[in-house]
Amino acid sequence: MPTTRIMITKEGKIIVEGIGYIGDECINDLQRIQQVLSSLGVQVNVEIQQKKPEAYISSSREVAEHGG
């Protein structure tokens, strides 16, 4: 089951880590988190976005959509 870990440093930076995601699913969840925070009046500026190796694996849904 995918999990999103959110850590806040002493300096106030937010680090978000997707665990157990495949493909771009983590990006979709990150966008939802940003929307929720925005609705609460918290603006998040993404400074760095690093994909893990799992992000380059196609999900079974993507394979089915592309006829693979």
SSE arrangement:
Blueprint: E1 3-8, E2 14-19, H1 25-39, H2 60-65
Antiparallel strand pairs: 1-2
Structure description:
The protein has 68 residues and is α+β, with helices and mostly antiparallel strands. It has one domain. The chain contains two helices and two strands, in the order ββαα. The relative contact order is 0.18. The model has no long low-confidence stretch (mean pLDDT 82).
Q: Which sequence of strands runs across the widest sheet?
A: 1-2
Structural class, please? alpha+beta
Can you count the beta strands? 2
The percent of residues in helical segments reads: 25-40%
Largest sheet: 2 strands, antiparallel
Distance between the termini: 24 Å
Mean pLDDT: 82
Uncertain runs with pLDDT below 50, 5 residues or more?
Answer: none
Return the domain count: 1
Number of helices: 2
Q: Provide the gyration radius in Å.
A: 14 Å
Shape: globular
The ordered H/E elements are: EEHH
Strand percentage = 15-25%
